[in-house]
Amino acid sequence: MASIFLLIPLSLMLFVVAIWAVRYAVKSDQFDDLDNASQRIILEDRQERRQVLQEHSAPKPSQPTSINKAPNSTGQVNSTPDKATDSKLH
Q1: What CA–CA distance (Å, rounded) separates 65 from 86?
Q2: Is 89 exposed, middle or buried (0-12, 13-18, 19+ CB in 10 A)?
């Protein structure tokens, strides 16, 4: 009989703690997206890998040579490389 006086209040306290824990979990949005949470980790990893691969596979721009596109005295466009650029190339 003495154990009932101990077990009933103890079980009521555990019941209150369990109710509080469930309410806290619901209020802190832990049950919002149960279906996609496990997939989100995989998808984020795939997106990061795609970005890294795109950065590495993007063609690197070559250094353009400066070409004189100014019109000459006759009005035609001269497309020959500059003297400074031409001397660097040789």
Answers
A1: 9
A2: exposed
Q: Are 31 and 25 in contact (CB under 8 A)?
A: yes
Find the distance separating the first CA and the last CA of the chain, reported in whole Å: 106
Res 22: pLDDT: 95
Give tens-digit pLDDT for 3-20: 999 999 999 999 999 999
If you count DSSP H runs as helices and E runs as strands, how many of each does the chain have, helices first?
Answer: 3, 0
Amino acid identity of residue 26, one-letter, is V
Question: Beta-carbon neighbour count of residue 71 at 10 Å?
Answer: 10
